[in-house]
């Protein structure tokens, strides 16, 4: 589905990712784990094309991602970042509607198909009853679901989530992860996310990628990769 070959990334002469190879399987949930500063979010930022590797190549469906235009990429992948902001006066439904931009020309209004997809994104994330609420007035867990719905409105094949449970209490952490699990199983959306909690990664992932100092230490099924020796 998605793979990176010999990718490296550096900034201000500091190397963050070192000659890394990774494969993201189609229709699965892949979680990137590791301590702070290990390169988790940097790796995710390259896979979702926010940052460009210093060297190496990234492919999506066997197509070199550099050969795709921005709109083509946005129809294949969408990302929920760790920090998100919105205008004060935007409603849930209107914000989610921005997810349709990659599928339209400039200034083109939403058509019936767009409206159906926006409604689907709200239904899939349990937001129909909140569609007329201002995003700024929602709880942290509700806002996170809104940003996931915004990403879903792009109709991506791959959904990236950078630490989606950060700043949430345990109840809303589980709520978000259960939603991610449902989106994967019900709609066959490939998911790549960064998490800190090992137990959550074991429960909600088909594959884990463990990083340290910009390198992948282990990758594979959670019960095979996360061992007592690894945790030492």
From TrEMBL:
SMART domains: AAA. The keyword NAD does not apply. PROSITE patterns: ABC_TRANSPORTER_1, ABC_TRANSPORTER_2. This is ATP-binding cassette domain-containing protein. Keywords: ATP-binding, Cell membrane, Ion transport, Iron, Iron transport, Membrane, Nucleotide-binding, Transport. InterPro entries: AAA+_ATPase (IPR003593), ABC_transporter-like_ATP-bd (IPR003439), ABC_transporter-like_CS (IPR017871), P-loop_NTPase (IPR027417), Siderophore_ABC-ATPase (IPR051535). The lineage of its organism: Bacteria, Bacillati, Bacillota, Clostridia, Eubacteriales. The keyword Isomerase does not apply. It comes from Clostridium tarantellae. CDD domains: ABC_Iron-Siderophores_B12_Hemin. Gene3D superfamilies: P-loop containing nucleotide triphosphate hydrolases. One of its GO terms (molecular function) is ATP binding. Residues 2-231 form the ABC transporter domain. Signal peptide: none annotated. GO terms for biological process: iron ion transport. It is a peripheral membrane protein. Pfam families: ABC_tran. It is found in: Cell membrane. GO terms for cellular component: plasma membrane. It comes from the Bacteria.
């Amino acid at each position: 589905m998605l793979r990176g070959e010999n990718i490296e990334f550096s900034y201000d002469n500091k190397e963050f990712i070192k000659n890394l190879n990774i494969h993201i399987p189609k229709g699965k949930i892949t979680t990137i784990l590791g301590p702070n500063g290990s390169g988790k979010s940097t790796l995710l930022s390259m896979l979702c094309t926010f940052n460009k590797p210093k060297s190496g190549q990234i492919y999506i469906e066997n197509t070199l991602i550099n050969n795709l235009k921005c709109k083509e990429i946005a129809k294949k992948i969408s990302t929920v970042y760790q920090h998100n902001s919105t205008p004060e006066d935007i409603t849930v439904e209107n914000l989610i509607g921005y997810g349709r931009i990659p599928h339209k020309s400039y200034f083109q209004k939403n058509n019936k198909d767009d409206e159906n997809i926006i409604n689907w994104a709200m239904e899939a994330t349990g937001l129909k009853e909140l569609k007329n609420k201002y995003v700024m007035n929602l709880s942290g867990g509700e806002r996170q679901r809104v940003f996931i719905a915004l990403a879903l409105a792009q109709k991506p094949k791959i959904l990236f989530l950078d630490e989606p449970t950060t700043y949430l209490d345990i109840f809303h952490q589980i709520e978000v992860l259960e939603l991610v699990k449902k989106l994967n199983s019900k709609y066959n959306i490939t998911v790549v996310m960064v998490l800190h909690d090992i137990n959550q990664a074991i429960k909600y992932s088909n594959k884990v990628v463990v990083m340290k100092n910009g390198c992948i230490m282990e990758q594979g099924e959670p019960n095979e990769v996360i061992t007592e020796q690894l945790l030492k």
